Amino acid sequence: MITLLDRYIATLFGLHIGDAIWAPYETKPASAIPALLGPRGLRFHKYENPWPEDRNGKMLPAGRPTDDSDQAADLCHSLLECNGIDQEHLRWALQNSVVHGHSRLWKGTATGAGKTTRAMLGDDPTKYEHVISTPLASNGSLMRSAPLALFLSPSPTRYSKSNGVEYAMVKAMSEVTHIHPDSVAACWFFVRMVRNALAERRFDEIEIQDQFDLRVCSYLVEVENGAGLPEDPGSFKDGWGAAEYSLKVALHAVMTTESFQDCIRTVGLAGGDTDTYGAIAGALAGAIYGTKAIPRQWKNTILGKKPMQHYGKRLHETRMTTAN
Questions:
Q1: How many CB atoms lie within 10 A of CB 133?
Q2: Which residues contact 89 (CB under 8 A, 6 or more apart)?
Q3: Burial label, 175 (beta-carbon count in 10 A; 0-12, 13-18, 19+)
Q4: Cα 208 from Cα 225, distance rounded (Å)
Q5: How many CA atoms, within 13 angstroms, populate the side-chain half-sphere of residue 200?
Q6: Which domains does the chain have, with CATH numbers?
Q7: What is the distance between the alpha carbons of residues 280 and 18, in angstroms, rounded to a whole number?
Q8: Would you say 72 and 53 are in contact if contact means Cβ atoms under 8 Å apart?
Q9: CA distance 308 to 2
Q10: How far apart are CA 216 and CA 190, in angstroms?
């Protein structure tokens, strides 16, 4: 039996593992991934730092968190400090890593945030206004949203509604950095999927509430019938950074595998934003399979293991207090 506490911790472990293990392959095309993995396949290893100016040195250590894990940790911190979503506090927490480079997970500098996130959290009004006026449906809020599913907890007797308080919390979380309706919708869909996994519901047991849900659920039916990776939805340059595309890639990996390990090994083969696909799929797979299904070497390699475990326990404690 997998306890609810174990699923909470595994969700955050999975997010960090998927992010960190696929980080060396970010931006690489799918065609190049097999050769880069080599005969040993997917594994943690040191890799060349794509941001040499960030004071982390020429080579990054195995298990180092990227912005996906760092911002998830920022969200955990803010949820616990405020007992929910406070946009100003969350903005400050995210600025801690994105602007100031302070990671809650490891001793090095936090780097790697996307352009939209940096513009929304920075102090350049021109960049901020540009993002507000021409928002992109990118995946920067989706990648960090799993902790909100833990805070909202499994709901075994009812479904969350798109006009309710829980949706409003998800929307507020996303809009600190990502205001496009598809970015918000992707977070809302994913939070409900993680909650289903925590409550041990069927993977496809989700209520369609809008056109975004309909598109994703229609794709899930296609996957059940043998469909491959999704087509680029056309909402973001080259597709690989789009929220909808990222969500579908992660869901494809979860649906077409039968273990945590195989899910993680599969998800990054799409190429592109591999660490974010890994973070999304890893969080959901963790909620499904629990910590015992995660290879010990993977759990011990991530540099944010203890903080993520702490956040999982605290969020579970908060859930139990609220439920009782």
A1: 7
A2: 78, 81, 82
A3: middle
A4: 19
A5: 7
A6: 4-30+62-323 (1.10.4080.10)
A7: 8
A8: no
A9: 18
A10: 11
pLDDT in tens, 57-89: 999 999 999 999 999 999 999 999 999 999 999
Q: What is the pLDDT of residues 248-285, one digit of tens each?
A: 999 999 999 999 999 999 999 999 999 999 999 999 99
Report the run of H or E that residue 235 belongs to, with start and end. none
- Contact assessment for residue 187 and residue 173, using Cβ atoms and an 8 Å cutoff: yes
Please check whether residue 64 is in contact with residue 298, taking contact to mean a CB–CB distance below 8 angstroms: no
Report the alpha-carbon distance of residue 223 to residue 35 in Å, rounded.
26
The one-letter code for the residue type at 228 is G
Rounded Cα–Cα distance for residues 122 and 118 (Å): 6
CA–CA separation, 80 and 204 (whole Å): 30
Report the distance separating Cα 310 and Cα 269, nearest Å. Answer: 31
Tokens of 257: 């595998």
Beta strands 59-60; 47-48: pairing state: antiparallel
Q: How far, in Å, CA of 302 to CA of 313, rounded?
A: 18
Handedness of CA 80, 82, 86, 92 (dihedral sign): negative
For tokens 């931006």, what's the residue? 27
CA–CA dist 109, 5 (Å, integer): 30
Average of per-residue pLDDT across 19-43: 95
